[in-house]
Design a protein that fits this description.
- The chain is mainly α and 202 residues long.
- Helix content is 33%, strand content 8%.
- Strands 1-2-3 form a 3-stranded parallel beta sheet.
- Helix 4 links the parallel strand 1 and strand 2.
- Helix 6 runs parallel beside helix 7.
- About 12% of the residues have low confidence.
């Protein structure tokens, strides 16, 4: 019997073997709206079901802390942000450094390393060799080149490459390395999730 998305994630995080590689979804609002339309889904839950996405899209727990104790304009991790109109470009906007020039701290999940594979020092094989038995990896499907500008075959090959590199005992959640951008074709996004569903059984 297939695991539920929750069971799949918990198995991976606990160092156990899930039935298949878990998936997650990060995308800009424009991408999500387009996918809902293109894939004829009524809501995000239907989209997750259609693409076999395991990630959580809504946690509605009441916040007890709304800002950083030392900075009323920062979030709970001490990061400030601002809305930036980006159309079909990139919504990335660097945070301002702290007053003393130190970079703002970045939030970290204790069990997962968000993986942006084209960044220096983030070579997949080396990370798996050095840390594969200690942490899980999240992401690794390139949102800056492969998803927006590659072909469907390029996307499939990158996912298959990740399956090989992040093979057990390494733990990996298949996802874009960061938000999927509006220039990414629907067929490439679908190819990422179809490839992991078809080839990600463990």
């Amino acid at each position: 019997m297939a695991m539920t998305p929750r069971e799949r994630w918990l198995a991976l995080l606990n160092g156990e073997k899930p039935d298949r590689i878990p998936t997650d979804y990060w995308a800009t609002e424009e991408v999500t709206k387009r996918l809902l339309k293109d894939l004829k889904c009524n809501d995000i839950e239907e989209l997750y079901d259609k693409l076999h996405i395991d990630g959580v899209h809504l946690i509605d727990a009441k916040r007890t802390i709304t800002h950083h104790p030392d900075d009323l304009e920062a979030n709970i991790w001490g990061l400030r942000s601002e809305k930036v109109a980006h159309g079909t470009g990139s919504p990335l906007h660097p945070a301002e450094p702290e007053a003393d020039g130190r970079p703002c701290p970045q939030p970290r999940h204790p069990h997962l390393l968000p993986h942006r594979r084209r960044c220096p020092g983030m070579e997949r094989e080396g990370l798996v060799r050095d840390f594969g038995d200690k942490i899980g990896f999240h992401g690794a499907v390139d949102n800056q080149q492969t998803l927006p500008f590659g072909s469907v075959d390029d996307v499939r090959n990158e996912v298959l490459d990740n399956i090989r590199i992040f093979a057990p005992p390494a733990r990996w959640i298949c996802a874009p390395c960061h938000n999927i951008q509006a220039v990414s074709p629907t067929e490439n996004i679908v190819a990422m999730y179809e490839t992991i569903r078809e080839n990600g059984k463990l």
